[in-house]
Request: fold
Amino acid sequence: MTFFGLQWGASAMMWLLPLMALPWLSHSQSKVVAWSQFVPDDPLSDATGFLLKLLASITIASLILALAKPYVPEKAIERVGNGAEVVILVDRSRSMDDPFSSRGKALAINRTVGKGDSKRRIAKKYLLEFVDKRPDDRFGFVLFSNKALDLLPLSYNKNSIRQTINASALGKGLSETNIAKAMITAAEMYGKETYSGSRTVLLVSDGGQEFSAENKQLITELYKRENLTLYWLYMRSTTGLRIDEESTDDSWAKTPEKKLHKFFKSLGVPYHVFEIESVKSFSEAIDTIDQQQKQPLIVEEIIPREDKSSPFFWMAMITMLLLAMAQFYTAWGVKKAHE
Amino acid sequence: MKISYQQRIIATAIGMLLVVVLMVLALSFPRTDRTVKVMDLLFVLDITQSMDVKDVELDGEKVSRLAWAQAHAKDLLQTLPCGSHVGLAAFSESRSLVLMNPVEVCSSYNDLSQMLAKIDGSISWALSSELSKAVFGAIDQAKLMTPSPDIVFITDGHEAPPLHESLFPKYNRGLEDVSGVFVGVGGDELLPIPKHDLEGNEDGFWEQNDVLHEDVYASMSGESEEVRAARPRNQHLSSQKQTHLTSLAKRLSFDYLVSPDNVDTLLTTLEGKVKTRDQVINYNWAPWFSAVALLLLALIYFPFRFFRH
Reply:
């Protein structure tokens, strides 16, 4: 509930507020005089009495309000930062379970579920490094198998994105993946947000896929409309050939990777492909993206919830101090009178 | 006890001074460290199709088991003390797909609750529902995390294709320190299961001939015809499979709660079952000082004369 423009953590305490009336009902300070007609009319004394009761009421109210746990809720403020908004798509296909080996080394046949460095694990490691480098970025994550889900909508919370990336490296891959759907979902995530400066889609996969004409058209439209930059970290298999190499060999031009690359180039949005052939090139790719994506953008920052009980304690203390002083003065006066 | 007017005035003055002192303490007393018990959990939500059966109540309304599961998981998120960590996973086919490793519940509440709302049948990647294997998988993955979370598995216990008692899979990799609780959802009555294709389109209900009614491995290994014929052919219907969950819970020394009414029941069970960690929090004593001050003030100003006859 809101009261005084503050939120109250224990608003039930406010039921005690009627205690404010106590000083007005109590007569414990008054002296019984045999015949009140003897007491002369004294406006100053009446005013003092009124003031003391008022002070007492204020003290009680302040105490109760302090106990009702007033706070200013956490709020988001906007500032200009340096970074980008990044939606991460990590291929969860089975082939990502394959060991990541450098070019030239023999391809290990057995898949390394649970041990060794699979492509998925390597991707995880460097994506985490990327996230840690970029404090101002806002990250989103798309989970995709044969379907795609905007699992983590764009969030400034670094723990959420880190643990989502960590989770993506657990277990075995899924049998089917649909990159086109994931790319559409990523673009749609931006559709719901206001434009804040820089929008990036980061696709990590080890293979290509041929998209249907319908999907191609939709992706082209969406990526242009949402003003996206596309990065493809292509963790090529050891047998792969350079993706950009012009080759006269028809069989290579027909590989899904090559086709996907061609399609991405035709998108009409900023697009970069990084062919990851070693751990080192992954790290370099991450650095390059890090340098390229340092545009000024509007960053939301969360101001944590702030406790506001101390002004009430101060109020209670000051009014109580006045009251106590007045009371000691009275006690001194009464003592004098008795003497 | 009768006290003189003068004594009364002095006593009041001292009382007031005491209140001032209490206020000074409330404002200046240092916060002290105090420990609370927090836990690390991995919520696994069953998203298989039997969870779409609408046979449970939530706020007086009939809802699907999945909606109930989401609501209860959310309640638990809100109830866990800050410092607890929660991760999310979805069970479909024969695995628990971890979507997010455990994060601190208070600072990441927003992301957790949003993600929780997205865990439904639309992300299931296959149509079978091999519960036991998925539970084992959840344990395996929990062991890979540090600190390893305990498991809260929300399911109706429906195993499809069915398992024969003699072929019940065993978890023999060692539980290490992973423990958990099954939260059973679903009614007692066998009800038809709404059928969706993998695209999520509704397609009537599962029919008797759509599903397997017996464990094919058991029937291959020479079960007698009589035994097989006597077996009810009702695997296309679903209720909360209490016997199955009880026996699974026993094998893994998990606890099993049958449709807990409220989150406190679940929290109490969890506190008794899973690992807890001591989390140091900054304890503020100010409310205690001000409560005493308030009591003192109420006594000073209490209108005793109304209570003297």
